[in-house]
Amino acid sequence: PSVALVDRAARPDVEDLVRGYLADTLSIAAYAGTTPTAFPAQSVAIVRTGGVARDLVTDLATISIDCRAKSSETAALNIARQVRAHLGAVEREGVIGSTPVYEVREISGPYLNPDPRNPAVHRYTVAFQVAVRGSVS
C-alpha cells in the first residue's frame, strides 16, 4: 500500500526571517544563506545548519550567525553581543513581524571564528535554535 506524505504546515524561512529582523533592528547589512565574498564595514550572515519539524506546525531551526567587522575583533564581538540581546528580546516578545516565535535557545555564545577567505574582516559566530510557527495549509 502507498502512503501519502503531506507537509501540513507552510513553515517560514527562518534564515530570511532572522535576516530581516536583524537588518532592521541593528541597521546593518544582513545576508541569509550563501554570503558574498566582499563585505561592508559591518554585517551579519545567517545560515541554517539544521533543525527539525518539532510538531505539526512548528519548525525548530538551528542557525549560525556570523558577525563581521572590518575595524576590529572587538567591533565584531559587539555585533555578536547585540545579536544575542535582540534574539533574547524576540523570545520574550514571542514574535518576529507576524510570525509567532515559541523559543530562541542559544547553542553557542560568541566565539572568534576567523574567516580564512577574508582574513582582513574580523568574525565572531553565535548559534541558536529558533522555534517558529508555520501556517496550516
Please characterize this protein's 3D structure:
The chain is an alpha+beta fold and 137 residues long. The chain is built from 2 helices and 8 strands; from the N terminus they run βαβββαββββ. The protein has helices at residues 14-26, 73-93; strands at residues 9-10, 29-32, 42-53, 58-69, 95-96, 99-112, 122-133, 135-136. The strands form 2 sheets. Strands 2-3-4-7-6-5 form a 6-stranded mixed β-sheet, with helices on one face. A two-stranded antiparallel ribbon has the order 1-8. The two termini are 25 Å apart. The mean pLDDT is 92.
The total beta strand count reads: 8
Number of helices: 2
**SSE order, as H and E?**
EHEEEHEEEE
Strand order of the main beta sheet, please? 2-3-4-7-6-5
Shape: elongated
Structural class: alpha+beta
List segments where confidence is low: pLDDT < 50 over at least 5 consecutive residues: none
Biggest sheet overview: 6 strands, mixed
Strand content is 35-45%
What is the CA-atom radius of gyration, in angstroms? Answer: 16 Å
Q: What does the average pLDDT come to? A: 92
> How far is it from the N-terminal to the C-terminal residue, by CA?
25 Å
User: Level of helix content?
Assistant: 10-25%
